[in-house]
Amino acid sequence: MDAALKLFLLAEDTVLPIEAVAPTIVHGQVDWMETAEAHIFKVNVPGFKKESIQVQVLEEDILQIAGEQKMETIEGKQHCLERPRGSFFRQFKLPDKVVADNIRAYDEHGVLIIVVPKKPFVKKIHILPKV
Q: Is the separation of the CB atoms in 65 and 94 below 8 Å?
C-alpha cells in the first residue's frame, strides 16, 4: 500500500511522530537574477520570522543566507503537521564587481529579496594631443 494512502487511512486519534508527516529540512529555494545595476536573490521563506534569518557577506565575496523555522509547542494532539520546519543554509560566490557594503534585504510576502548592487562601470579616457 502506498505510504501516503497509509497516512490517510490512519484512525483520527492516532498521533504520528513529526518526522512521519512533515519534512525536517527547509530548502530555502533561491532564484538569482542579474540586472544592469544589481544581482538580485529571491529566497522562499514563508512563515519565517525576520529575526530567524541571517544574511551575511563573508570575506567580501561570499553571500551567506541561513534561517531556522522552529516548531510551535502546543498542548494536546497534533493531527496534521505539514508546514515546513527546520533550517536552511546557502552560500553564493559573488562576482568581483559588486558593492558588498550596500547590500539591502527585505521581505515581500514570504520571499526574502536581497539586492547586491554592482560597482558602476566608469572608464576614464585620457585626451592626448594630436601628433
A: no
Question: What is the DSSP secondary-structure string of 39-100?
Answer: EEEEEE-TT--GGGEEEEEETTTEEEEEEEEPPP--SS------S--EEEEEEEEPPSSB-G
User: 25 pLDDT exceeds 80?
Assistant: no
Q: What is the pLDDT of residues 74-92, one digit of tens each?
A: 788 878 877 777 888 999 9
Which pairing describes strands 62-69 and 86-93: parallel, antiparallel, or unpaired? antiparallel
- HEC per residue, 5-24: HHHHHCCCCCCCCHHHHCCC
Please count the CA atoms within 13 angstroms of the CA of 120 that sit on its side-chain side. Answer: 3
Q: Is 102 in a helix, a strand, or coil? A: helix
Average the pLDDT over 69-75 and give the result.
80
Closest Cα partner for 23 from 65, 78, 85, 74? 85
